[in-house]
Specification:
This protein is of the alpha+beta class. Helix content is 15%, strand content 41%.
Length: 113
Amino acid sequence: MRSLKRKNRSEPESSVRDDRASQDDILAVIADIDSGHEYYMAFVDEFKFDGNEYVVMYNYEPDDGQHADPELIIMRSQRHVDGEQYFLSIKNRKELDAAFNIFFQRFEESGGI
């Protein structure tokens, strides 16, 4: 899926976020440019690895106590020359595994587990 970041509340932080649905959540509306479907996403982390930028996020739903724990999504992030930020699905399993390992290491170092 190629997607475009439409708007957000604030800029992403450099450390891994481990709080869910806090007042400071970094939220964005992500639009699939192929289907036009919009997704509300909360950002968890962003990092650079092997010359690429990655973002970790989850599908945001207000916490009303009835939602299952969110699933993490890791996507490659690219900024277009016009300033728009694009998120691309990672189709290569080795790249996805490597990005997840970097994220998990960062998560552990931040005291997440």
